[in-house]
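Review session, final week

We close the course with one last complete record, chosen because it touches almost every idea we covered. It is PTS system, galactitol-specific EIIC component, a protein from Lactiplantibacillus plantarum with 516 residues. Go through it on your own first, then we will talk.
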Amino acid sequence: MDVLKTIVNYVLNLGGPVFVPLIMFIIATIAGLKLKKSVLAALTLGVAFSGMTLVVNYMMDSISPAAKAMSKIFHLSLNAIDAGWTGVAAITWSYKSAFLFFPLLLAINFIMLTFKWTKTLNVDMWNVWNKIFTYVVVLYFTHNVFYGFIVAGIQIVLELKAGDMWQRHIEDLTGMPGVTVPHFVTLFAVILQPLNKLLDFIPAMNRPFDSAALQKKIGVFGDNTVMGAIIGVLLGFGAGYSVSKSLNLAIQAATAMTLFPMISKLFMQALSPIADAMSDFMKKHFNGREVFIGLDWPILAGRNELWVTVVILVPVMLVFAMLLPGNTVLPFAGIINLSFVVAALLLTGANLLRMLVLGIITTPIFLYGATYFAPIITNLAKSTGTVKVQAGQQLSWSTFEGPDFRLFFAKAFTGEWWAIGISILWLLGFIWLYIDQNKIKLPSQRYVLAGSAQSSSTTAAPSETTTTSAGSLDDLDDMDFSNTSKSSASNNATKVSLNDLDGLNFSNTSKHNNSR
């Protein structure tokens, strides 16, 4: 066990920009790509990872202070502060059994590939933390280790099937063949699917409304750079910034919106020759069988619809945080709602109008999910010792990932009949989604105006970000969730504001450059 733990820690310490290109170099070499091309493709992929990480962090660092300023204008002061996905990931990686989920993912993926139950080979190893956190949630409710592993295993299977389902859409949206995104965030499409189907009955929702279509309709104002500047300056004014500071935010947002598609082209440049070599290899040795390479969601980050949506939803989330009865979470670190927008992008085929409507409708789900799971996250932080939480504070994640799946399945394994019923309905919803997405038109063909041969949807190359904080796997022993309850944690917590983030001590958290 100690040897396995050491190996896993070493791999995690390499970081996404090193480990994933290394794996892709090995795959390319086995597939018969020439050494020179394999090296160049791997290095280009590493550059793309690092470049996209820089731009995404730049975007978030620009937007987050504006969100904090808005919260002050709204006079928000709530019980739980928002550590974002990076904070929760750091805590989760520090869980004592975390290293066991690395081989679990590989084993399930290998079995499913062997029996042709999936076409996806998932090399996105850092998002194992998602499975670990699901295990911790189930353990919290059931006090049963076996149930935790079962639900985490179910999640892995569903992610791989989602990778199969989304591949053709991802290729259409990005122009990148042979890659997919077997990420947990895409499973929120199960909840979005019926809502998106209802939008089919609204004529305006069935028109082209991606970035390219928008630019055709409104000219220069639909240009990526101009859109970024407009959104940035409006966000600055909404945050109460001065004209000078608002204009600076406009330039920062415009810079990010301009660089996203530019850097995303590096992913296409790196992965296209590897995908071609893999295709030739499979045709030669496995009777033409398809295998898709599963990567992290940011290969989609070149689609500006994604960033326009999440930035516009920032003030929406703050308004909901203020108005929703019972909400205890103060959005900050997780206010860029990546837990929603990736599934929305894929499900709607990058229809910006649909994405915004779905985002407004479902934002309360994330805030209430964050409120409900705040005691669990707080107790996990205290138990692991990874993050020092001040007395009277709670820790949460305002855009809590997969609140539906984790709540329903954790409660189902406690024997609660309502949860068992809803979990079955959720799985049926996934089957419906899977069937529908395998037969629905591709994004570039979906929204066609009368008399038009094609929609205005265009392909943009993807991009990738890899930043995760992860704690050492060596620090933890006894987990004790028994004394934590939602109600007591919520009632005993004192009011805090965003300034109380300064009271959190992350000094015990060791950093890993992992991918979300």
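Two points worth writing down before the exam:
Residues 243-285 form the longest helix (43 residues).
The chain has one domain: 1-447.
Good luck, everyone.
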